[in-house]
Amino acid sequence: MRAQVAIIGAGPAGLLLSHLLHLEGIESIIIESRSREYCETRVRAGLLEQNSVDLLNETGLGERMNRIALPHDGVQFTFDNTYHRVNMTELTGRRVTIYAQQEIVKDIIAVRLKAGGQIHFEADAKEIGGLDTAKPFVKFMHEGSLKTIECDYVAGCDGFHGISRDAMPASMVKGFDRVYPFGWLGMLIAAKPPSEELIYSHHPEGFTLFSMRAPEITRSYLQVAPDEDIKNWSEDRMWSEMRKRLGKHEGLELNEGEILQASITPMRSYVSEPMRYEKLFLAGDSAHIVPPTGAKGMNLAMADVCVLARAMIAFYKKNQTHYLDSYSETCLSRVWRAEHFSWWMTTLMHTFHDASPFDQRRQIAELHTVFGSRAGQTLLAENYAGLPIVNWRP
After folding, report:
1. Is residue 146 located within the same domain as residue 207?
2. Can you point out the beta strands (E) in 199-273?
3. Could you tell me the pLDDT band of residue 214, with boundaries at 50, 70 and 90?
4. What confidence tens digit (pLDDT) does each residue in 148-196 have?
5. Are residues 160 and 198 both part of a single domain?
6. Is 141 helix (H, G, I), strand (E, B) or coil?
């Protein structure tokens, strides 16, 4: 096979990159180790920044999103028996939108296939080579045989456990890691959420987040030990903890329903530098992981892809290489800001059970400082609603 760009991974990053390149007449082939059904149904992130929504609309991907997504002007917080609402629209002129990652994946797959795009599902990438030559390639297993894509560039969008990052020379890669002393017990619940906006709750026994995937579907998370066994959590225990940690606040009511899914995910921050080696470019989770507290993972992947699409379009359309050369530096400046915000939100809202009494009191004081100040709320709102992204067209 031959393409200008070989893309490994059919998540939001890989699919969006393929779509943006297609709009400028640049050919790509996507390979994805999972099935199409898996990609289109796996429950993942669900919050889009304003810039991400604008990008999807600008590039013809927003029709279904605009019909069924849930826009939010604010986000709510409870702590120390108090309630606060941050009005993002009033403070920044921007909002966030709830639209599940699997729905975005479904939308882009449909658009790419309708346009004749090549997406090979259940295609397991085995080798990336020739990166320092004029003929890079990707070898993959598909339908029982080993196949090869010859290309000009490789985009590694295959997530934290993919092969792309490991294809870079170990001597030039530096990883920055932060593992948190807790995990999230995530639940998908067939019930109306307690509010039409997200609720972040700090409680002495642990953090809780109440979100949604649809008007009648709640997505909730409970802070648990990182090595906690899901078998220890009955539905009664889950509901008891959610009620306790939400507390009693006027207008907020916990609605119980069937728990459709439940799983535990550890929490970490990670950045790999650089994000480019010769003809290989990393984007999304293959290069960085953020704890989901700040709702940055999918948005950060889309921001990477805008930078990468601009660089490739400038090369193919204008024979310019400066955007390719500055790709890693450009992405990482935004990545680290998102990493900081995600770390800050995580440490601000979670309970650290080994914290000293001093640190416990200090954390509560910080919460009151942030939410008792318009300046503090504005800083949070600016980052939560999303930092600027580059124009994907050079």
Report:
1. no
2. 199-201, 208-214, 217-224, 258-273
3. confident
4. 999 999 999 999 999 999 999 999 999 999 999 999 999 999 999 999 9
5. no
6. strand
- 279 and 263 in one domain? no
Q: Which phi-psi region, left, alpha or beta, contains residue 23 (left: φ > 0; alpha: ψ -120 to 50)?
A: alpha
Angle, CA 61 vertex, CA 200 and CA 209 arms, to 5°: 10
Q: Is the pLDDT of residue 42 over 90?
A: no
Read off the pLDDT of residues 325-373 as tens digits, 9 standing for 90 and up. Answer: 999 999 999 999 999 999 999 999 999 999 999 999 999 999 999 999 9
Please say whether the beta carbons of 299 and 388 come within 8 A. no
Q: What CATH number has the domain bearing residue 106?
A: 3.50.50.60
- Average pLDDT on 376-393 reads 97
pLDDT of amino acid 213: 86
Q: Quick one: 125 and 145 in the same domain?
A: yes
The catalytic residues are 72, 200, 292, 296, 384
Looking at per-residue confidence, does 253 or 306 come out higher? Answer: 306
The count of domains in the chain is 2
Confidence check: pLDDT of 53 > 90: yes
Whether 161 and 263 map to the same domain: the answer is: no
Phi-psi region of 64 (alpha: psi -120 to 50; beta: other; left: phi over 0): alpha
Contact 1, 148 (CB under 8 A): yes
Sign of the C-alpha dihedral computed for residues 289, 295, 297 and 300 taken in this order: negative
241, 267, 293 - which closes a domain:
267
Query: Domain containing 37: what range?
Result: 5-46+100-173+274-353
Q: What's the one-letter identity of residue 83?
A: Y
The answer to whether residues 324 and 342 belong to one domain is: yes
Measured N-to-C along each axis, helices 357-371 and 327-349 cross at an angle, to the nearest 10 degrees, of 110
Does residue 372 lie within any of the structural domains? no
Residue 251 lies in a domain: yes
Q: Which residues of 203-217 are buried (b: 16+ CB within 10 A; e: fewer)?
A: beebbbbbbbbbeeb
